[in-house]
């Protein structure tokens, strides 16, 4: 994490080019410092052997075990027709189970000499199955014997570190390389202020590095982990606090709504009152808009909590104050949908400059990549002349040709679908930095919000508007109980019979080229490709849903066709829409009450939650059926049971995170090999992150240039390599 010369030494100088090349290519490690921060994944205890009983299939594993017996067999094969082929079979045991190792051909001689019964060793290889038994073929191994001075020294610690490794570089080779560079740890400059470190009883950085790689007791490991977690949390939070501090210094135009302007006229038209939550969040946003520094706010809201209404009122306030507002949507379907619903909500207030338009009206234009030339030219003209106060579009809004008269607010919908560059390009279109409101319907646990969106203030909408109906969710085990699936189609017919509509969602379109390599290992159901929209639509039209009006919608249709299908569905002309996840965000058809998700196990938890939010949007109750062929005991089924059991998006996002690796969660925010969180677990270490944020805010308020803390500045420079620096610049 720091740029001290000893730690910046390239590995090829220290370890030699071949080893350094493998480390760079497979583990992303380039310098001595990188290698010191490559921490053990776990530790083997000398007296306690890994459980051979728990070995995962197809994974690269390292086990410590004792040789029970070793037998050399001869056999005939095409390469050795006279029975001269040799196979060495070694059985190892650890008390919990036994495992077979096999070596063939010329590779048998050395292990035959080394692996005598009673020998203890570390073995690494990929677990496979042969004759219904687990085995490691040609594993690499390292004998654990204490007869030489060096071996005694190396294995003296009771704890053997097991490092994240690859097939090209076994754990103990990584370990040996680390032992080579460990003396340099003494030169590591400490990024934590002394007062903070001493106040929390944390060990120094050199001591933490020594203890994590060469612990003598479990307490050593705990000390090291506590300290290294603090480093990661604190350095990241300081970076984010400095970002917020710098943003607070930027100029922006304060936008306050006129007392009897567009917003007042709009509120007078509303057929309902805002929820308590909507009022609270609106106040936070309006307070930000009234300041002369750009707002940077993240609005998290459950599916259907009325985020669009909050965003629209913010946009109207900005138009009232003489500015323009742009809303960026991730797909054309969603941009068209937003445009349609906003124009409907505003009525004559969206008809600025037109006959029949209201006095305070403005124009609401749509801008997408597939628009005709004339419509596009008119939209661009409306923006530059300020005829249009509100524009809704896809990333077509970001193109150079798009000029605004006075861009005051940017609303980004479904943040996780946009790169930072895109947000930045749009913000660059204001004469001064515009205010920014980022919306997401994917609930983000508090600590992830603090880590990933740490440069944004957060508002949460967790109440559903009055009149929203509950959604009942059930898992339909199609393989175990086929009659449940038949009943699912009957339920769809019943909903349509009652005047409602239904969605059927499939993971695939059905006109793709088959890719034989794309296989995921989960259970037997994976042997068939995922169900496809085009196939299922045919089967339903000619089978269980015969006589109903069934249409398809997917991402590869022409934009006009997509829009036509959505319009017919919204108008109630279509009974059942068979679609891919293009309907996942923002699609709003209150009359749709049922959704059947085919191969539901192929979707992530938050994706299922998003999809489910498309039903129950009116006054009739919603129904969501999760169809799967996964066996009852599988992890996939447990995931689906969790989704069926709760409608609380924050609870589901927690489950989702616990099942995924941290890296997936932080995504782009943690790009760059150096910056990924190695020690900190975003969910478990909530307390550390929250405390680190407080400490960081206090520190930056007192000394934003960090003049008194060269070690911290160095650690930040290493964290914020160029790519990361840009990421935060644009955050």
How would you characterize the overall build of this protein?
It contains 27 helices and 21 strands. Residues 151-157, 514-526, 661-675 and 722-731 have low confidence and may be disordered. The strands form 4 sheets. Strands 11-12-10-13-14-9-15 form a 7-stranded parallel sheet, with helices on both faces. A hairpin with a 2-residue loop joins strand 5 and strand 6. The radius of gyration is 30 Å and the shape is globular. By secondary structure, it is of the alpha/beta class. Helix 10 crosses helix 25 (686-702), helix 10 crosses helix 26 (710-719) and helix 12 packs parallel to helix 13.
TL;DR of this structure?
This protein has 731 residues and is of the alpha/beta class.
- Tally of contiguous helical segments: 27
Side by side, the strands of the main sheet go: 11-12-10-13-14-9-15
Describe the biggest sheet? 7 strands, parallel
Helix content: 25-40%
SS strand fraction: 15-25%
Flag low-confidence runs. 151-157, 514-526, 661-675, 722-731
Radius of gyration in whole Å, from Cα?
A: 30 Å
What attributes characterize this protein structure?
globular; 21 strands; 27 helices; single chain; 7-stranded parallel sheet; 6-stranded parallel sheet; alpha/beta; 731 residues
What's the SSE blueprint?
Blueprint (H helix, E strand, L loop, with lengths): L4 H4 L2 H5 L1 H11 L4 H5 L5 E4 L14 E16 L9 E9 L4 E7 L4 H6 L5 E11 L2 E5 L2 E4 L5 H6 L4 E4 L8 H11 L12 H6 L5 H9 L4 H32 L12 H8 L6 H14 L6 E6 L5 H14 L3 E5 L3 H15 L16 E5 L5 H12 L3 E6 L13 E7 L6 H8 L7 E6 L5 H7 L4 E5 L9 E7 L4 H16 L3 E5 L27 H9 L8 E4 L5 H12 L5 E4 L12 E6 L7 H8 L9 E7 L6 H11 L3 H11 L2 H5 L19 H17 L7 H10 L2 H9 L1
Parallel strand pairs: 4-6, 9-14, 9-15, 10-12, 10-13, 11-12, 13-14, 16-21, 17-19, 17-20, 18-19, 20-21
Antiparallel strand pairs: 1-8, 2-3, 2-5, 3-4, 5-6, 5-7
